[in-house]
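Reply to dn_fold:

You asked what the input looked like. This is it:
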Amino acid sequence: MDIACILLASGYGRRYGGNKLLTLWEGVPLYRRAFAALPPHLFSPAVVTSQYGEILTAAGKAGYLPLLNCHPWEGVAAGIRLGLQAAWRSDGALFAVCDQPNLKTSSIINLINSFLKSPERIHALGWQGKKGNPVIFPKSLYSELMALSGDTGGSAVIRAHQELLTLTEAGDPAELMDVDRPGKG
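and this is what came back:
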């Protein structure tokens, strides 16, 4: 069973004040921390969508398929559609963002294993009953993800199919923290 990884790295970082993905976290740029937590060998395919050449170049060198997001101003839906086009043949698609610096590969593996046990369900990393990211969507929901527009992300599809949601406990609540503003999680 193939699970794709679609790493969304196209954001403007409006709340952050610039491209936050280049920000160092414990000496490593945020996007490289995401690459480390989501190693491409776990997925088929593993893609990175971004508007930033530096990130796309690094993604290619790290073993990801780099996809230039030519419509980043549209919002997150543009990256979702772009990544999903490359992953259309997969049985499930894991969507992740690059601003969760504490995400661990062990939690990703647990999430993948949860999906493999119930591939018809939506699987999200969570903590004590609260949904977080990343999320794996089954192939049956790809058309709904492709229909998203603007800054509407996969949460809209989850809300429409709440009965399909399965949470996989993260190893630590810090894994779900994202970086929104300089110096803050």
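The helical segments are 30-37, 53-62, 76-86, 105-117, 142-146, 155-160.
Hope that clears it up.
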